[in-house]
Amino acid sequence: MLLTTQYLEEADQLAGEIAVVDHGRVIAQGTPEELKAKTGGQTLTVRPTDVTDLSTVTAIVAEVTGVTPEVAQSAVTVAVNEPGVLPAVVRRLDAAEIPVAELALRGASLDEVFLSLTGHRAEDSPADTDLERTPA
Asked: Which end of the chain has fewer beta carbons closer than 10 Å to its terminal beta carbon, N or C?
């Protein structure tokens, strides 16, 4: 069975094999797990209980990971590849006495795989990928 979709969460749940198509070309294919492994790493998210601690959390995460994290919706997010990052961040947050409302380490999503492979999000596809229409 062939399913075409731009809803990558749907593809992740339903497909046994995925072909990633960008601008009409297949740029990668494999099982959802194989494609996620290509992106490598995981994503660490830290949301402090008190939003005034956000800058300190950002500094801690940046120092531990060596990467400038993204800050959005009162959470700090960064891609990580080292298994020791999570415990190191927890130790630093504990030492700074910063309580957290959310602390998560998760694998890559297919949306992140698509972004990594193409340089743009699936929903940001340029208009030139639409079917060409002839005037009436």
From this structure: C
Q: In what order do the strands lie in the sheet with 70-72?
A: 70-72, 75-80, 42-48, 100-107
Of 131, 125, 122, which is closest to residue 5 (Cα–Cα)?
A: 122
- For the chain, domains (ranges, CATH) are 8-38+110-124 (no CATH), 41-107 (3.30.70)
Report the C-alpha gap between 121 and 128 in whole angstroms. Answer: 15
Per-residue pLDDT tens over the stretch 48-71: 999 999 999 999 999 999 999 999
The fraction of the chain above a pLDDT of 70, given in percent, is 89
Element housing 110 (H / E): helix 110-118
The per-residue pLDDT for 1 is: 83
Q: Is the pLDDT of residue 103 over 90?
A: yes
Strand partners, 79: 43
